[in-house]
Design a protein that fits this description.
mainly alpha; Serine Threonine Protein Phosphatase 5, Tetratricopeptide repeat; 3 domains; 20 helices; 0% strand; elongated
Length: 433
């Protein structure tokens, strides 16, 4: 029984975590770039993929996924973020009646659309759970991969923080309000009694026969009733005053808790102190909810999107400004070089201009610029094949560029693929093998 319960709890945790981290529907926070510059062939194949998903034709969708993977690699685009977002939105309905094995295979293939997108890995984890107990191991591995993917995708991390903060914000406000109301319900009478003692006409408890007789007189009854009404009115005024003054619900709960604080037990006082600490954390949670939309308008996230996904023409003024203001920064020249290559993939002029932009920053430690430079030189080599043979000097230059990029980006598929291609173009079969 315990094993079954633990399995169910794990499955629920995977489903809930995936829903919060990669919600396909509009949620508390959503920050996606507004425009993309994708090659026409990728746009056409993306339309084919989405049409296949709408028809629930997973076989055709799988073929489109393989084509998009190859097109993405050829275009040098690290992540097809808009395509992966659209895929996540349609896959659940398209695979609802499919066999678990087929759905898992399609979800695994879709990761190639955007390897740095945690949402695709959460989607795979949820799909693995459809296989029952046999899918628990695969779901755990996919969930772990999704967590690691956040390290490579800061925008997804900010969206996760915003979504989580939004849910926590609502839960904390609900807990604070319920806690404040519980304190009032438990100790409200004591508060009203002490406020009634503020009025001089408040009758004392009769002990003697004379006092009991006086308490039955009309004047004493009216005075007691007025005192109670004044005490209740004063309590209501104190409770409603923060709301009337526009302080809001949470500050009003804080005022309520402060009013009954002298009557709380030790355990209740600890709970009230924790509530005050939570109230102090609410501005931070609110700031995290607004973080993705605010950060998306800054230079850093916009340039990250251009490097890791693809850039639109609206970034040209920003790139020109960054090139002038930060001449030693390699990212603006790298993005401009990528745009030139994508506009004219095999034109000698734009390729020469792109390589000229990248040459001064080839030693950048992450290896991004060195890899881009080697890719540009490889395109120049392919563009030189006018009579079926590449220019030997350009081939040697591209091969050397890949060899310089390998220590900076060890194990990079782009670098290893480039080394194999240049070795084949140079006729070096030993290196090719």
């Amino acid at each position: 029984m315990r094993a079954i319960l633990s399995t169910l709890l794990f499955g629920i945790a995977i489903l809930v975590a995936g829903r919060v981290a990669a919600d396909e529907k509009p949620g508390p926070a959503r920050s996606e770039p507004t425009s993309y510059s994708l090659p026409p062939e990728i746009i056409r194949e993306s339309g084919t993929l989405l049409s296949s998903l709408r028809r629930h034709d997973l076989g055709a969708a799988e073929i489109s996924l393989f084509r998009l993977r190859d097109l993405r690699t050829e275009a040098g685009i690290p992540n097809l973020a808009p395509v992966s977002a659209a895929f996540r939105g349609l896959f659940a309905e398209a695979s609802a009646e499919a066999a678990p094995g087929l759905a898992i295979r399609i979800a695994s293939t879709a990761i190639a659309l955007s390897p740095d997108d945690p949402g695709l890995r959460w989607l795979l984890a949820r799909t693995q759970m459809r296989a029952g107990i046999e899918g628990i191991g695969g779901a755990a591995g996919a969930a772990l991969d999704a967590v690691h993917a956040y390290q490579r995708n800061p925008r997804a991390l900010t969206i996760l923080a915003a979504n989580t903060s939004a849910y926590l914000l609502g839960a904390l406000i609900l807990v604070l309000v319920l806690g404040g109301l519980a304190f009032l319900a438990r100790h409200g009478r004591l508060l009203a009694h002490d406020l009634g003692d503020l009025f001089p006409s408040a009758p004392a408890t009769p002990f003697s026969a004379v006092e009991m007789a006086q308490s039955r007189k009309l004047q004493a009854i009216v005075g007691s009733g007025l005192t109670r009404m004044l005490a209740i009115s004063l309590v209501g005024l104190l409770l409603l005053l923060p709301i009337v003054l526009g302080f809001g619900l949470v500050p009003s709960v804080v005022v309520w808790t402060l009013l009954v604080l002298p009557y709380l037990r030790r355990s209740e006082s600890v709970a009230a102190a924790m509530g005050f600490i939570l109230v102090a954390s609410l501005p931070l949670l609110g700031a995290l909810v607004l973080l993705p939309d605010r950060a998306a308008a800054t230079d850093g996230p916009r340039m990250w999107s251009a490097l890791e996904e693809t850039a639109g023409e609206e970034l040209l003024p920003l790139l020109a400004h960054r090139s002038v203001e930060h001449p030693n920064e390699p990212w603006a020249p790298a993005i401009l070089a990528r745009q030139e290559v994508r506009r004219s993939p095999l034109s000698p002029g734009p390729l020469l201009a792109a390589s000229t932009r990248l040459q001064p920053f080839a030693g950048e430690p992450s290896g991004v610029v060195a890899t881009d430079l080697a890719n540009v030189l490889l395109r120049r080599t392919l563009a030189s094949c006018r009579d079926g043979k590449p220019d030997p000097s350009l081939t040697a230059e591209a091969r050397e560029a890949y060899q310089r990029a390998l220590p900076l980006a060890p194990g990079s598929p782009a670098v290893l693929r480039g080394l194999a291609l240049t070795a084949g173009l140079a006729g070096d079969r030993d290196a090719l093998e």
